[in-house]
């Protein structure tokens, strides 16, 4: 166990977030950097300061930082002036003020990076108007469930795509979507067209591949498509062929990419809004919690294979 040096704190982790980008980082093709053999796997953590040699932190403070896949980490304060990607990937720790009635783990999911991704993509980029049809893939996951609920709160008609009947039922019953299509049924593309009779005005794409192709086949005129993630590609060693873009031309559609790091300065605004919505019943979230750091590799493989249901969090025991 290392001792903190001047300006550092020693943190004992209680929660570790598992996120799909880590798969790309391991493959060496993520903008956050490469993970090399022998490196600690990256990941956002919540924990408590157990020794402090920094005036801004006291023993017992709850902090959020990028502590990685380990039980303890050393951190300093964030460097002054860090913004955007540098702030998102900072090695500094932040004292975490947990609002009354909000579970601590939510700050790694709905009130953290995945929730901010949904907020930026829906509010700042797709901007659905009341009555428009909003479609989102991986609809029961951390990003997709938040994106759909934000669009619903903005007055859109919201349709999801998910991988099992249980996920689809939860998306409708708990997240309040208008419809959800099971992508593992043989006729799911016909089901998607039936669920979007007026066409898709805004598509929040977390998957790429077949789901992007299917969504392009349902576009309304002047549709907007947000490329947020490529789940269909992450497990492949090859870059997959792109979809036919004919419908984009015919429907005068617009495609835009999202990188959450560009929106990091919006975190506090999103947290305030999401906390209000959460506490007043206008936002819900689901977590897939796994106990024990030693379970993280299996949990991560399950996340990348689509076998998890909700935001994956590792609860780290003492
Ligand atoms: N651009 C950014 O800045 C940014 C930031 C955060 C996250 N993201 C992206 O947003 C997406 C969702 O992230 P998340 O953390 O909320 O994950 P998640 O939804 O909790 O998990 C991923 C889900 O993707 C679905 N999926 C669709 N096609 C898949 C396939 N071929 N293989 C495996 N799973 C597949 C699965 O759900 P079903 O089986 O129910 O379809 C799976 O559960 C990811 O692509 C992630 O990389 C992007």
Per CATH, what is the topology of the largest domain? Rossmann fold
Class from secondary-structure proportions? alpha/beta
Q: Could you say which overall geometry the principal axes of the C-alpha atoms support?
A: globular
Number of domains: 2
Per CATH, the architecture of the largest domain is 3-Layer(aba) Sandwich
Q: Give the rounded overall mean pLDDT.
A: 96
Bound molecules: NADP nicotinamide-adenine-dinucleotide phosphate
Distance between the termini: 14 Å
> Which percent bin holds the helix content?
25-40%
Number of strands: 13
Q: What can be said about the biggest beta sheet?
A: 7 strands, mixed
Supply the number of helical segments: 11
What characteristics describe this protein?
7-stranded mixed sheet, 6-stranded parallel sheet, 13 strands, 318 residues, 29% helix, 22% strand, 2 domains, 11 helices, alpha/beta, Quinone Oxidoreductase, Chain A, domain 1, Rossmann fold, binds NADP nicotinamide-adenine-dinucleotide phosphate
Would you kindly provide a written description of the structure presented here, covering whatever features stand out?
With 318 residues, the protein is of the alpha/beta class. The protein folds into two domains: 9-109 and 286-315, Medium-chain alcohol dehydrogenases, catalytic domain (Quinone Oxidoreductase, Chain A, domain 1, Alpha-Beta Complex); 113-261, Rossmann fold (3-Layer(aba) Sandwich), CATH 3.40.50.720. It contains eleven helices and 13 strands. Strands 1, 2, 3, 4, 5, 12 and 13 form a seven-stranded mixed sheet that branches. It has a six-stranded parallel sheet with strand order 8-7-6-9-10-11, sandwiched between helices. Helix 3 packs across helix 4 and helix 3 (113-126) crosses helix 10.
């Amino acid at each position: 166990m290392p001792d903190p040096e001047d300006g550092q704190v020693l943190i004992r982790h209680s929660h570790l977030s598992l996120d799909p980008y880590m798969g790309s980082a391991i493959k060496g093709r993520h903008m956050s950097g490469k993970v090399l053999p022998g490196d600690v796997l990256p990941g956002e953590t919540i924990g408590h300061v157990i020794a402090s040699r920094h005036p801004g932190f006291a023993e017992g403070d709850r902090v959020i930082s990028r502590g990685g896949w380990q039980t303890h980490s050393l951190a300093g304060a964030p460097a002054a002036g860090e913004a955007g990607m540098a702030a998102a990937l900072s090695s500094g720790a932040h004292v975490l003020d947990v609002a009354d009635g909000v579970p601590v783990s939510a700050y790694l999911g709905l009130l953290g990076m995945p929730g901010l991704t949904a907020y930026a993509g829906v509010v700042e980029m797709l901007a659905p108007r009341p009555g428009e049809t909003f479609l989102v893939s991986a609809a029961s996951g951390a990003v997709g469930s938040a994106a759909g609920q934000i669009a619903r709160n903005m007055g859109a008609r919201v349709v999801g795509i998910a991988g099992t009947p249980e996920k689809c039922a939860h998306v409708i019953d708990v997240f309040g979507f208008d419809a959800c299509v099971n992508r593992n049924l043989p006729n799911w593309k016909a089901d998607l067209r039936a669920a979007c009779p007026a066409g898709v005005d805004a598509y929040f794409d977390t998957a790429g591949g077949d789901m992007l192709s299917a969504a392009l086949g349902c576009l309304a005129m002047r549709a907007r498509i947000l490329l947020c993630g490529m789940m269909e590609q992450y497990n492949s060693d090859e870059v997959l062929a792109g979809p036919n873009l004919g419908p984009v031309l015919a429907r005068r559609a617009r495609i835009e990419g999202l990188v959450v790091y560009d929106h990091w300065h919006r975190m506090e605004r999103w947290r305030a809004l999401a906390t209000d919505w959460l506490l007043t019943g206008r936002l819900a979230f689901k977590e897939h919690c796994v106990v024990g750091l030693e379970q993280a590799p299996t949990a991560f493989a399950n996340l990348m294979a689509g076998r998890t249901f909700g935001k994956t969090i590792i609860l780290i025991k003492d």
